[in-house]
Design brief:
mainly beta, 5-stranded antiparallel beta sheet, Jelly Rolls, globular, single chain, 2 helices
């Protein structure tokens, strides 16, 4: 299933500190990802069977933590200059793992939730549709076998185009930079 993450992606270990009162866990330090600070944080609740994505950002990075539940993170590297270009990855993240996932620009990603879940994620740039490209999460070219059969998708994700279309759009965007 998972050999290694796409180049530049990270699983950042979180270190909970327990005592008789409960637990404190640092969830973010700017030095962990060595880039610009997060400018926006989102708290998202997802129902069991929800699939969010697959999305791609050309300008912003994501830093996400599973607070509750279980998230299957699907990744696909769209950066032609990357040593992991065209590779797919699927991993399960739970709160008990005490990790945060860092997703750089150019890595397409989707989230599938097998049970009611809550995620917290920070963005390096403000969210905008201008930097939120999508493709069909079940496109065979993604080579991601999402767990479960139930699919609760947004209308946008239901009507998203192919991976090839998203790759062409991303390549064209890269040429203009």
């Amino acid at each position: 299933m998972l050999k290694k993450l796409p180049a530049g992606c990270k699983l950042v270990p979180l270190k909970p500190i327990d005592d008789s009162r409960g637990t404190l866990t640092e969830v973010y330090r700017q030095q962990w990802v060595e880039e610009t600070a997060r400018v926006q944080w989102n708290l998202v609740r997802s129902n069991a069977g929800t699939l969010r994505g697959v999305h791609l950002h050309a300008k912003r990075t994501d830093f996400l933590i599973v607070v509750e539940g279980e998230m299957w993170l699907g990744l696909y590297d769209m950066r032609r200059s990357s040593v992991t270009f065209g590779q797919s990855h699927l991993l399960c993240i739970t709160p008990e793992m005490n990790v945060a996932a860092y997703i750089p620009t150019g890595v397409a990603h989707g989230f599938y939730f097998t049970k009611p879940s809550m995620t917290l994620y920070g963005l390096s740039d403000y969210w905008t549709l201008d930097d939120d490209f999508g493709c069909d999460p079940d496109d065979p070219a993604l080579n991601i076998e999402w767990p479960g059969d139930a699919r609760i998708l947004s209308e946008r994700d239901t009507t998203a185009g192919s991976l090839a279309e998203m790759q062409a759009f991303y390549d064209k965007w890269q040429e203009t930079q």
